[in-house]
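Sequence in, structure out.
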Amino acid sequence: MSEPERQNEQEGQVERERERVLELRAVSKSFGGLRVLSQLDLVVHDGEIVSVIGPNGAGKTTLFNLITGLYRPDAGDILLEGRSVVGLPPWKITQRGIARTFQTLRLFLNMTVRENVMAAAYGHTKATWLESMLRLPRARREEREIRRLAEEKLGFFGERLVGYRWDQPAYSLSYANRRRLEIARATATRPRVLLLDEPAAGMNPNETLEIAELIGKLRDDGGYTILVIEHDMHVVEGISDRVVALDHGVKIAEGSFDEVATSPRVVEAYLGVRGAKEEAA
């Protein structure tokens, strides 16, 4: 065996041995007669950033809704660290270790920045409603712990979400900081996997660059495994270990950004048959 072949074999062995944190096996979903996802296989390894791309209607958000339990697949299985999450309610899946953001912001705008993040952590508390109502010792202790956790998660975002901003209502934040706050709220659930749905949507170029750097920091410093939907190809290129392209619910390409971006099927999905021919000419 030549040296390049030996190196490729070793790299393949490392890839096979890496922990599969999130795995979809032949997942399909239809709404009436419309097939939205078809026999989709997808693996996200520990510490990876995997981007899902595709034109509108490709099934990307449906994929997130299936993983988080908003929808149930018609066929196939979804596993988190080897355990199926199919059939579990969304709150239980969050407790297992999957958190998400949304394409359209869903913050509690009249609550403070700190309270928004604290709200996400209550699913891990043990105090009963009676203990909370009477402010008994366990409820007070957990309240202090949640407050500390919220401030820790907000501190990860640096000056953008610290200090005086903690007591500001969420509606007072800029759009970019609201995006950051939604990610901070997701991290307060102590997730194993973060699902980010178009985190750079609606941002200007400088904000887009900052959010791309933030996603890398979430993986490198925060230790999160990340699956992201994104339309901005500059962001996808900058953050992704692997890219998966969908079209009409079917995986049409998977690999590095360069491999996927130059795939004829991906070019055709974005530009159409005529556009793909002109691109090739």
